[in-house]
Amino acid sequence: MVGITGTIWQSKSRPRPAEPAFQYLTNDSITLDIYETFDAAGLLNGYRTHVRTPVCEDRLCYDAELDFFWDLLGKFTHFETDPAKPLTKLDHVPFTAADYERLDRILRTESPAFIHLRRSELIVEPEQGDETIDGVTGATVQAVRQDMVAGAIYTCYTLWHIANGGITFRIQEHSRKQLEAPLIRKLLREGNAREHYFLLENMAPEYFAEFLEPVLDLADRYQAFFAARIGEQLPPELFGRPEVQTFFQQHFSRLDLSAQEVWIDRLAAVPRLDASTRLFLIEQLTAGNPPRNQQIIKLLIDRSEPEETEVFAALFTQLLDHGIRPAPGILGSLDAIAAGDRQLKKMLKRLKKL
């Protein structure tokens, strides 16, 4: 296999840029110029490169020349060839339409049968009388034939590793730097699950504030893990927003215990929680979750004023109804809170007997 250099044909959606977005060097010392592609509105839509390479097996060589395309997150989407320069197999036999379809499927397969093989392991030497080997294509390792175009095994292998190698991470790295308001707005409106998770993991804090409502709305479209990640990714200052606290109440039951505790920890840093949020937290106190119970009790003590007797009356009632005894360190704080209220004193006395 000889070296490959990447150039680019003119983009269909805007004039060819003067410079590539970045260059990528593959494991085979292939240098690719990676260019951005854009939609009709001029927003980043994906990436492309042009590959030209002679592929050689022993003394037989044949050219491979085509354009590769990836989406914003580096997922290979398709390829294009010049009709005047078709891909060829051994003995310079042109690819058929079926061969192109097969190659397209192979390149879009995330884990083909040959993924863990070295190039030298794709071919086996035929043994005399071995009926499983026939001619040129028969020498291919039997297990990987399903993911090869007959007569073009090195082409398939080489192109797959270009399409699906470390380029994915380089593209994501570049796309991360392009996450400004227009592109974020587009992805929130038109993006798929992968792109929405990418936004959640990589948006700058100021954009979370700007796009808070549509980000929260996305949680209804996905499993609970998305809501859990919102709890981890939102900037601290946004947890005081009423819409975030409402979101917490709406999605709390979907979350696993670990995610619930993360959300409660994040809310514990809010100087002032809405009354509805505090009452909601009180309702979550149940006998089956001792660590979370103590976490909630401490949050309520830290984020409520001592004179808010209605909050603490509701807290004490819930604790008594469910037989939950506050931890010793927390009881001292409750003593101070109940000191000025006769009803709270009576309830606290009962709590200490649990």
Give an account of the 3D structure.
The longest helix is centred in the C-terminal third of the chain and has 13 residues, at 290-302. Helix 11 (275-283) packs parallel to helix 13 (309-321) and helix 13 packs parallel to helix 15. The chain has 354 residues and is α+β, with helices and mostly antiparallel strands. It has helices at residues 97-107, 153-164, 167-177, 181-190, 193-202, 205-210, 212-218, 224-233, 242-251, 257-268, 275-283, 290-302, 309-321, 328-338, 342-352; strands at 5-7, 22-25, 31-38, 44-57, 60-70, 76-80. The chain folds into two domains: 5-169, no CATH class; 179-352, Alpha Horseshoe (Serine Threonine Protein Phosphatase 5, Tetratricopeptide repeat), CATH 1.25.40. Strand 2 (22-25) and strand 3 form a beta hairpin.
Helix content: 40-55%
Q: What is the structural class?
A: alpha+beta
Radius of gyration from CA coordinates? 30 Å
CATH topology of the largest domain: Serine Threonine Protein Phosphatase 5, Tetratricopeptide repeat
Architecture (CATH level 2) name of the largest domain: Alpha Horseshoe
How large is the count of helical segments?
Answer: 15
Number of strands: 6
